[in-house]
Amino acid sequence: MHLRPENILALKHANIPSSVLIHPETLPAGLTTNDLTNQGVHFAIVDMNRLLPIFGAGKVDLIIDHHDDEGVHEDAERLIQVPTGSCASLVTKYFRSQWTAAASSPAGAAGSPVPPELATLLLSAMVIDTAGLKAGGKAVETDYESASFLYPLSTFATSSPDSPSAGSMSISSTSPAPQALSDFSNQLLEQKFDVSNLTTHDLLLRDYKEYILPTSSTSFPSLQVGLSTVPMSIKKVLEKESEGWTSYMKALDGYMHEKNLDIEGVLTTYKTDKKGKHKRELLILVRSGGSIKTSEEAKRVRDELIEGLEAGEILELEVWGEKKSLKLNKKAKEGEELLDSGLGGRWGKVWVQGNDKATRKQVAPLLVSHLSFDHARC
């Protein structure tokens, strides 16, 4: 939880103690995530559509997600909508008809079936995901509709004597969020991007998703892939490292080994110091020792990924370190040499991402498509 201070702030503002959350590490003694299915637990998945391997072959009843459908858990009810800025907007959309019906029934006459704490928490997730529901960003119509429905029911509105009644609020691309929500959004985003005290390991873990991606190879029919979104430029990360690229790569190698990853992608997102321009970078590492047995195989996979990603037009990949200061050019050369050394059976590549709107939701499907090449020669 300490890796996501914006989540702690959102819970505090919604008057929900973090102690009520259940984590794999806080299950009762002797009970593991793999045991849950045997105990009769069924699953509803949000913000992803494949049950993580740590839960085994669990029974999935419901999927609510804003990422591309991976086509698993075919028996599950699903609400998958791409694009949508925040999965919390889809959670609201899924339950809204039930909430509305409950509010209009005689039993619901005493008040809303949506507790203010829940409405506030859902709104908090929406503004974190969409940078405050601002026009021209990630927010789409579903996000605005869900926010308009929830705001009058939230603590933002109930704390104000002249707050709008349920159903009378309108938030859209042309009608900005109310000041109370906008102010809190700024607080959340400030917390989210304050990562100066986090280690490289913490930065990789704080916004991390894991995938099992299929390939056409008979040697390794699937690969374990991790994608970490890091709100800090590689240059800034290197400045924090004691030995620059050398210690940075040691930390990445350790993380991949800890997670048993065959491929790790680091997706940086940040704003430049001088002009505040939004920038993104992409670093891809492929290692042997897991499903990929040899360094030669790892290099082939890396080379195929480079060829496919650079040929595509979605990410608009450019040379990292180009048109920068002499100091960064030196760092770029050091990184290029280290990533292309095959040290420890690990191969990699780093780019500037010209398309600063392409997120993990675009990168993951691209990796799927480029891992489906013919590996017969491997």
Number of strands: 9
- Report the portion of residues in β strands: 15-25%
Strand order of the largest sheet: 4-5-6-7-9-8
Q: CA-to-CA gap between the ends? A: 41 Å
Class computed from helices, strands and strand pairing: alpha/beta
Helix and strand arrangement:
Layout lengths: L4 H9 L28 E5 L12 E7 L11 E4 L6 H18 L11 H14 L11 H10 L4 H4 L20 H14 L7 H7 L1 E7 L7 E9 L3 H7 L4 H15 L3 E9 L6 E10 L7 H17 L5 E3 L6 H14 L6 E8 L6 H12 L7
Parallel strand pairs: 1-2, 2-3, 5-6
Antiparallel strand pairs: 4-5, 6-7, 7-9, 8-9
Helix pairs in contact: 1-3, 1-6, 2-3, 2-4, 3-6, 10-12
Structure notes:
It is a single chain. This protein has 378 residues and is α/β, with parallel strands linked by helices. Helix content is 37%, strand content 16%. The protein has helices at 5-13, 87-104, 116-129, 141-150, 155-158, 179-192, 200-206, 234-240, 245-259, 295-311, 326-339, 360-371, and strands at 42-46, 59-65, 77-80, 208-214, 222-230, 263-271, 278-287, 317-319, 346-353. The strands form 2 sheets. The protein has a 6-stranded mixed beta sheet with strand order 4-5-6-7-9-8, with helices on both faces. Strands 1-2-3 form a 3-stranded parallel beta sheet. Helix 1 packs antiparallel against helix 3 (116-129). The radius of gyration is 22 Å and the shape is globular.
Which descriptors apply to this entry?
single chain
In short:
With 378 residues, the chain is of the alpha/beta class.
